[in-house]
Write a structure and sequence with these properties.
By secondary structure, the protein is of the alpha/beta class. It has 15 helices and 13 strands. It folds into 3 domains: 187 residues, Rossmann fold (3-Layer(aba) Sandwich); 49 residues, no CATH class; 121 residues, Response regulator (Rossmann fold), CATH 3.40.50.2300. A 5-stranded parallel sheet has the order 2-3-1-4-5. The protein has a 5-stranded parallel sheet with strand order 10-9-11-12-13, with helices on both faces. Strands 6-7-8 form a 3-stranded mixed sheet. The chain starts with a strand and ends with a helix. The mean pLDDT is 95. It comes from Desulfosarcina widdelii. It holds the Pfam family Cytidylate_kin2.
C-alpha cells in the first residue's frame, strides 16, 4: 500500500478524516510535530526555531543566517528518515517536502469553502466570527508562504499540487475517508522498484542538503542512484571556488558516489550568493533615530559579512527583539519615546543573553557607568571607527559562542 500525504486548511474537519483513514488502513501517523521533534534531535536546533519555518513571516536576519533554509533542510531529512519506517500517513506541512519522483504517495488536499470553516470554528472551536476569520486568514497565509517557498505556487489549494482535492463542504467525513481509500489502491500510486529507489534518493539528497546548510550554504540538491547534483540559484563571484567547496562537503557523505554542480534558472538574477559566515555576528540589530547614519552603518557592516537589521525607535526595536531574536544590539541613548537606557534595561531583564553595545554621541561618564552596570557589553562614542566597532562586535559574538558551547 502507498504513503498518504494530507495538506489541509484550518477548520476543514481534516483531523476526523485522517482518523477515519488510519482506523481503516492501519497507516502510521506522522505529524508535523513529530518531524519537528526528530529534526531538532538530529540537528541540535531548538524545536521552536525549526517550527518557525512554517510561518509566513521570515526573520529580517534570514538573508545572512539562512535559518529558514536550514530548518527546511532539517525537516526534509527527518521526514525522509521517517518514511523509511514503512507505511505512513503524513499530516501537515511536511508532506509537501516529498518530491514528485516518489510516486507511491497519494497527495491529498482537504479544504472547504469559508462558510463551512467559519461554522466549524464557531461551533467546535468556540470562537467568535471575528476570531475565526483572524485564525483562518493567518493559517492560510502560512500555507501560502509554504507552498510558495517550496513549489513557487502561492495558492496552497491549487489542484495541480495534489492527486485529489476533497471539498469538505460537499461531503461528510466517512465519504471523504472512503474516497482516499479508493484512490490509495490505484496503480498510479502503487509502490514500484523505481519509486522505492526514488525514496532512497530523497533520503540521500536530504542528508546532503542538511550538511551543506549546516556549513552555511544554500543550494538545491537532487540525487539519483548515488549521483548528487547541486544547483546554485544565485550569482556567485567565484563560482569555481564555491563548486569545489560544495563538492568537498557533499563528496564525503555516505552513499554519495559522485557530485556535480550546475547553475539554476535564477543564477543570472541580481541576488548574490551569500554563504553564512559563522565567525562574525549575523543577527545585529541597529537602533538609532538618525536614519542616514544607521543605514550607512548597516551597509558598512554588511560589507564585512555581518548581517544587520535597522530600527529607528525603541518600540520597533523591542518588537524585533521578541520576533527575530538578535544576538547583538547596537543602540543610541538619546531617542524620542523609549530611549536607549530603557531599551537596555528591558532587554537585559527579558533577554539577558543578547549583548548590547551602546553607541552614542551624547552620553556622559555617568551614562557610561550606568550602562555598564546594567549589563552593556561596551560603551562607544560617535563617531566610531568602523574597525573598532567590528572588533567589538566580533568580541561580543565570541562571548555568545562560548556561552552556547
Amino acid at each position: 500500500m502507498s504513503v498518504i500525504a494530507i495538506f489541509s486548511g484550518r477548520y476543514c474537519s481534516a483531523d476526523a478524516v485522517i482518523q477515519d483513514v488510519i482506523d481503516s488502513t492501519g497507516h502510521r501517523l506522522i505529524t508535523d510535530d513529530r518531524i519537528v521533534q526528530k529534526a531538532a534531535e538530529a540537528s541540535g536546533i531548538q524545536e521552536s526555531k525549526i517550527r518557525r519555518a512554517f510561518s509566513a513571516r521570515t526573520s529580517v536576519f534570514n538573508t545572512f543566517t539562512h535559518e529558514k533554509e536550514l530548518s527546511i533542510a532539517c525537516l526534509r531529512k527527518a521526514l525522509a528518515v521517517e518514511l523509511d519506517g514503512g507505511l505512513a500517513l503524513v499530516d501537515g506541512f511536511c508532506g509537501l517536502l516529498i518530491p514528485p519522483t516518489v510516486s507511491h504517495v497519494l497527495r491529498v488536499c482537504i479544504i472547504a469553502e469559508m462558510p463551512y470553516r467559519l461554522e466549524q470554528a464557531e461551533t467546535i472551536g468556540k470562537l467568535t466570527r471575528k476570531e475565526a476569520l483572524k485564525q483562518i486568514h493567518a493559517a492560510d497565509a502560512d500555507s501560502s508562504a509554504w507552498t510558495d517557498a517550496l513549489l513557487s505556487v502561492k495558492d496552497p489549494w491549487e489542484a495541480s499540487l495534489y492527486d485529489m482535492v476533497i471539498p469538505m463542504n460537499r461531503m461528510d467525513v466517512a465519504r471523504a475517508g472512503a474516497l482516499i481509500e479508493e484512490n490509495l489502491i490505484k496503480d498510479a500510486v502503487r509502490r514500484t522498484s523505481a519509486s522505492s529507489q526514488a525514496q532512497k534518493d530523497f533520503l540521500l539528497a536530504a542528508a546532503v542538503e542538511m550538511e551543506l546548510c549546516r556549513a552555511g550554504h544554500d543550494v538545491s540538491v537532487t540525487a539519483e542512484n548515488g549521483a548528487v547534483v547541486l544547483t546554485i540559484n544565485k550569482q556567485v563571484l567565484m563560482l569555481a571556488r564555491l563548486e569545489e567547496e560544495l563538492k568537498a562537503i557533499a563528496g564525503t557523505l555516505p552513499g554519495v558516489e559522485s557530485v556535480s554542480t550546475r547553475v539554476g534558472k535564477n543564477f543570472h538574477e541580481a541576488t548574490i550568493y551569500r554563504k553564512h559566515n559563522f565567525e562574525v555576528p549575523s543577527k545585529v540589530l541597529l537602533v538609532d533615530d538618525e536614519r542616514e547614519f544607521v543605514q550607512t552603518l548597516s551597509e558598512r557592516l554588511q560589507l564585512r559579512d555581518m548581517g544587520s537589521a535597522v530600527a529607528y525607535d525603541g518600540e520597533s526595536a523591542l518588537t524585533l527583539v521578541k520576533e527575530d531574536e538578535p544576538e547583538v544590539m547596537i543602540i543610541d541613548l538619546k531617542m524620542p519615546g523609549i530611549d536607549g537606557m530603557e531599551i537596555l534595561r528591558q532587554v537585559k531583564a527579558t533577554r539577558p543573553e543578547i549583548e548590547v553595545i551602546v553607541l552614542t554621541g551624547h552620553g556622559s561618564e555617568k551614562d557610561r557607568q550606568q550602562c555598564m552596570q546594567m549589563g552593556a557589553f561596551a560603551y562607544l562614542q560617535k563617531p566610531v571607527d568602523i574597525d573598532e566597532l567590528s572588533a567589538t562586535l566580533k568580541e561580543a559574538h565570541e562571548k555568545i559562542r562560548q556561552v552556547k558551547a
